[in-house]
C-alpha cells in the first residue's frame, strides 16, 4: 500500500470506524474536550459526523466527500470537525439523532449535524451527495451556506439553537404522570397484538412491506401472547404469525445460506435482497428467538437455524480471548485485484460460476441433471441474475444471484425424481463447495470492537440455545464470554462496567487510554445475560454478579422523580439531554428489558424494592403503552410478566444427579415466559440460601430430586416425577 498523503488525530483512536477516517484530508477530532475548546477559542461551528464501520452509506459519503481534498479544505476552514462511532458512544448519537428526527422527520447514518461552539444543534441530516442534484442539495453547498449564516446571522443561529434545545427537552421527557400504577395488562397486550396483526404480511411474514427488519422484539411478544392465550383464535394467530415469519426469514436471502448467520435487513418484501452487513446484536437475539420457536413447536428446522447462527458467530465473530466482535461489513472487493469495493460482493453468485463449481451429474435424477441444476432450482438462481434492478440502485448486483430457498425440499426432490434425504445430502455438499469457493474471495471488513451490551445479547443467545437444545457446548461458550466481560469490561475497583474494548496487535485485547464507562444498555443486557447463564449453567457466581450490577445500575441511572432509568449517567457536561429511549427497535429499549430483569432479581434475592422499581417503570411509560404499544412490544411483554407474577421453579437435588437433570431438562424444554429457575442443592452456605432463607424449608422427598413451584416465595406441594412437573408447568 502507498504511504497515505494525510493523517489526522483519529490515528490515535482504537475504534475501527474512527481509524477508517484517519487518512482523510479532513482535520477530524474525536468527541472530547480538545475539540470543544478549539471551537470556543476560534468561535467556530462544529460539524459532527456520526456513523459506524459497517455502514454502507457511511462508506459512500467518505469516498465522495471526506476523501475529497477540496471539500476537506472547506470543512477545515469553516468548522471544527468531529467524528463519532455511534456504537462506542450511543449517548452522543441519541442526543443528536433525537434532533435530526424531530427536525427532518427521518434519521439514519451517516448522521451529519452542525452545532454551535457550546454543542447545541441547529441544522442536520443524514447522507449528503457531494454536489447539488435535481432533488437534493449537495454537501459542498450546505457547508458554504451554513458557514455564511454563521458569519452573517450568528445571534439568530444561537437563539434558534437554544429554542430547539428547550423544545427537545420538553418533548423527549418521559416521566410518571400523576397516577402511579402500571397500565392494565390485558388491554395493552390485546392492543399491541391487534396493531401487529394489522401490519402483518400474510404472504412473507414480517410487519412491513419494505425494508423489512428481523425485529425479534415483535416475535418474542407474539410467543408470550400465545403462551397466555393458547386456547383462543388470537393466540393461535399470534403463534402462526411468529413461526411463519421465522420460516420465511430462514428461507430468504437475509439468511446467509453459505456462510451462516443473518444479514441486517431486507430491502424488499420477500426477505430476498438484504443489506449485507451482519450485526452481532441480530445474531444474539435471533439465536434466542429461534430457540424459543423450537421449544414451542418441537420442529427441528428451528433448532438447525439456531445451530447455523451460533456456528457463524463462533467461527467469524469470536475473539480468541472469549469476547464477540461487533459486525461484518456489507462491502468488499469482488476479486483480489479489484480497486473498488461493492456491496454484497462476498455473498452473491453468477449462474456460470455455479455451473463451473457444480458440474457433477446427479445419480438417480433425470438424465443429464447436474448438481448445479438442482442447486440453482432450489435457490432461485437465474441465468441473468435474480436481483430486481429497483433494489440495486448502483448496479452492483447486476447479473448476480442472492440465494433464496424458493421451494420446499419435498418439491425440489419431486422435480428431479430424488429421495428427500438424498436431496438434503446433495444440497449440503453444494453449500460446502460454495463455502470453499467463497473463502478464496477477499473478506469484508470485520469490526473487532467488543461492546459489553452486544456481548450480553450474544451470551443470552448461547445460554438460551444451550438450555433449549440441551447443548452443553453452547452454555460453556456463554460462560467463556461472560468471563471475558468480567476480565476486560468490568472494573472491580469501582464495581462498574466499561462500554468497549478492542482487538489489538498480536490478538491482544486493548482498552482506550480513558476507557468509556458503561451505559444503561450495557448493564441491562449484561444482567439479562447473567440471569440466562445462571439458568443454563446453575453457577451461582453469575447470579451474584448480576445482582451486584443491578444495584450499580440503580445507583447510576435511576430517575427518582420521574421514574424509570436514564440512558446515561449524570454529570457529563457535553451531553445536553439525559434521555430515556421510548421505542423498541433492532434492539429492545433498556427500560423494557429492565422490567423483566428487576422481577428476576427480586425472585433471586428477596429484595422487593426491585419489584417496586419494575412497577414504577411501567407507570412512567403507561400512557405510551396504552396508546401505541406496538412501539414497545418488549415492554408490553414485560407488563404481562409483571401482572402474571413470576413462577419460581425450585428443584431440590444434586445438580449432577440424573433425577435432577431430568427435571431440569423438563423445565428447559418448554416455553414458559413467566418463570425463573433455581436449584437448591442443599449447601446452606451457598449464595442462593443466603439470599432466600425460604429455600432452607424445601427438602427432597424420599431422597429423590423434588420440584416446587413458588409464587412470591410461597410454594406448592412437592412433586418428584417429571410427568407431574410437566403438568404443573402447563398453564
TrEMBL record:
Q: Which Gene3D superfamilies match?
A: 1.50.10.10, Glutaredoxin
| Domain annotation Spermatogenesis-associated protein 20-like TRX: ranges | 7-168
What processes does the entry annotate via GO biological process terms?
carbohydrate metabolic process
Q: Which SUPFAM superfamilies match?
A: Six-hairpin glycosidases (SSF48208), Thioredoxin-like (SSF52833)
Q: Which InterPro entries match?
A: 6-hairpin_glycosidase_sf (IPR008928), 6hp_glycosidase-like_sf (IPR012341), Ssp411 (IPR024705), Ssp411-like_TRX (IPR004879), Thioredoxin-like_sf (IPR036249)
**Which Pfam families does this UniProt record tie to the protein?**
Thioredox_DsbH
* Domain of life of the organism encoding this protein: Eukaryota
| Name listed for the protein in its UniProt record | SPT20 protein
Q: What organism is this sequence from?
A: Hylia prasina
Q: Which gene encodes it?
A: Spata20
Amino acid at each position: 500500500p502507498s504511504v497515505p498523503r494525510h493523517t489526522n488525530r483519529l490515528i490515535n483512536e482504537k475504534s475501527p470506524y474512527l481509524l477508517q477516517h484517519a487518512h482523510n484530508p479532513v482535520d477530524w477530532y474525536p468527541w472530547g474536550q480538545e475539540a470543544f475548546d478549539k471551537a470556543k477559542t476560534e468561535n467556530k461551528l462544529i460539524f459532527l459526523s456520526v456513523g459506524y464501520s459497517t455502514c454502507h452509506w457511511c462508506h459512500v459519503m467518505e469516498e465522495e466527500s471526506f476523501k475529497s481534498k477540496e471539500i476537506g479544505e472547506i470543512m477545515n476552514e469553516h468548522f471544527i470537525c468531529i467524528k463519532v462511532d455511534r456504537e462506542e458512544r450511543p449517548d452522543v448519537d441519541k442526543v443528536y439523532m433525537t434532533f435530526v428526527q424531530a427536525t427532518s422527520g427521518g434519521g439514519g447514518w451517516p448522521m451529519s449535524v452542525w452545532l454551535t461552539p457550546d454543542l447545541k444543534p441547529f441544522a442536520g441530516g443524514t447522507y449528503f451527495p457531494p454536489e447539488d442534484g435535481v432533488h437534493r442539495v449537495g454537501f459542498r453547498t450546505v457547508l458554504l451556506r451554513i458557514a455564511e449564516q454563521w458569519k452573517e446571522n450568528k445571534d439568530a443561529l444561537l437563539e434558534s439553537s437554544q429554542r430547539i434545545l428547550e423544545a427537545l427537552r420538553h418533548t423527549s421527557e418521559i416521566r410518571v404522570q400523576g397516577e402511579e400504577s402500571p397500565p392494565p395488562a390485558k388491554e395493552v397486550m390485546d392492543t399491541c397484538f391487534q396493531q401487529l396483526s394489522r401490519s402483518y404480511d400474510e404472504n412473507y411474514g414480517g410487519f412491513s412491506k419494505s425494508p423489512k427488519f428481523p425485529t425479534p422484539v415483535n416475535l418474542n411478544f407474539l410467543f408470550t401472547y400465545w403462551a397466555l392465550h393458547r386456547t383462543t383464535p388470537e393466540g393461535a394467530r399470534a403463534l402462526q404469525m411468529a413461526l411463519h415469519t421465522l420460516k420465511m426469514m430462514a428461507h430468504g436471502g437475509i439468511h446467509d445460506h453459505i456462510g451462516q448467520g443473518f444479514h441486517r435487513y431486507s430491502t424488499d418484501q420477500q426477505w430476498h435482497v438484504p443489506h449485507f452487513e451482519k450485526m452481532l446484536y441480530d445474531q444474539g437475539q435471533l439465536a434466542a428467538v429461534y430457540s424459543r420457536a423450537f421449544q414451542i413447536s418441537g420442529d427441528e428446522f428451528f433448532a438447525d437455524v439456531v445451530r447455523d447462527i451460533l456456528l457463524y458467530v463462533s467461527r467469524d465473530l469470536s475473539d480468541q480471548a472469549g469476547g464477540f466482535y461487533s459486525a461484518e461489513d456489507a462491502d468488499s472487493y469482488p476479486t483480489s485485484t479489484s480497486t473498488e469495493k461493492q456491496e454484497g460482493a462476498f455473498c452473491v453468485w453468477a449462474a456460470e460460476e455455479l455451473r463451473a463449481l457444480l458440474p457433477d451429474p446427479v445419480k438417480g435424477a433425470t438424465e443429464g441433471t447436474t448438481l448445479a441444476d438442482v442447486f440453482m432450482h432450489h435457490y432461485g438462481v437465474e441465468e441473468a441474475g435474480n436481483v430486481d434492478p429497483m433494489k440495486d440502485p448502483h448496479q452492483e448486483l447486476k447479473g448476480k444471484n442472492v440465494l433464496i430457498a424458493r421451494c420446499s425440499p419435498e418439491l425440489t426432490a419431486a422435480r428431479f425424481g430424488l429421495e428427500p434425504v438424498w436431496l438434503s445430502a446433495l444440497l449440503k455438499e453444494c453449500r460446502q463447495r460454495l463455502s470453499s469457493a467463497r473463502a478464496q474471495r477477499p473478506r469484508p471488513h470485520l469490526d473487532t470492537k467488543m461492546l459489553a451490551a452486544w456481548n450480553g445479547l450474544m451470551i443470552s443467545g448461547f445460554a438460551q440455545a444451550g438450555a433449549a437444545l440441551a447443548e452443553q457446548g453452547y452454555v460453556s461458550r456463554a460462560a467463556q464470554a461472560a468471563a471475558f466481560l468480567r476480565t476486560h469490561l468490568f472494573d472491580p475497583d469501582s464495581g462498574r462496567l466499561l462500554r468497549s474494548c478492542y482487538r489489538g496487535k498480536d490478538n491482544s485485547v486493548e482498552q482506550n487510554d480513558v476507557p468509556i464507562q458503561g451505559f444503561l444498555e450495557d448493564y441491562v443486557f449484561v444482567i439479562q445475560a447473567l440471569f440466562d447463564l445462571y439458568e443454563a449453567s446453575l453457577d451461582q457466581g453469575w447470579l451474584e454478579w448480576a445482582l451486584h450490577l443491578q444495584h450499580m445500575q440503580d445507583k447510576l441511572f435511576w430517575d427518582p422523580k420521574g421514574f424509570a432509568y436514564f440512558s446515561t449517567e449524570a454529570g457529563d457536561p457535553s451531553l445536553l439531554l439525559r434521555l430515556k429511549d421510548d421505542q423498541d427497535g433492532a434492539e429492545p429499549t433498556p427500560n423494557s428489558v429492565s422490567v423483566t430483569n428487576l422481577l428476576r432479581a427480586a425472585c433471586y434475592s428477596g429484595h422487593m424494592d426491585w419489584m417496586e422499581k419494575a412497577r414504577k417503570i411501567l407507570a412512567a411509560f403507561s400512557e405510551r403503552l396504552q396508546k401505541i404499544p406496538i412501539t414497545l412490544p418488549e415492554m408490553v411483554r414485560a407488563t404481562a410478566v409483571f401482572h402474571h407474577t413470576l413462577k419460581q421453579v425450585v428443584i431440590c437435588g444434586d445438580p449432577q444427579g440424573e433425577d435432577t437433570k431430568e427435571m431440569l431438562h423438563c423445565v428447559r424444554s418448554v416455553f414458559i415466559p413467566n418463570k425463573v429457575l433455581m436449584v437448591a442443592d442443599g449447601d446452606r452456605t451457598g449464595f442462593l440460601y443466603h439470599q432466600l432463607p425460604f429455600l432452607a424449608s424445601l427438602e427432597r422427598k424420599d431422597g429423590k430430586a423434588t420440584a416446587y413451584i413458588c409464587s412470591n416465595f410461597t410454594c406448592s406441594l412437592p412433586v418428584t416425577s417429571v410427568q407431574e412437573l410437566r403438568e404443573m408447568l402447563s398453564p
